[in-house]
Amino acid sequence: QLQLVESGGGLVQPGGSLRLSCSASGFTLDYYAIGWFRQVPGKAREGVSCISSSDDSTYYATSVKGRFTISRDNVKNTVYLQMNSLTPEDTAVYYCAVSKMRRMCPPLQGPFFTSWGQGTQVTVSS
Question: Band of the pLDDT at 1, cuts 50, 70, 90?
Answer without folding.
Answer: confident
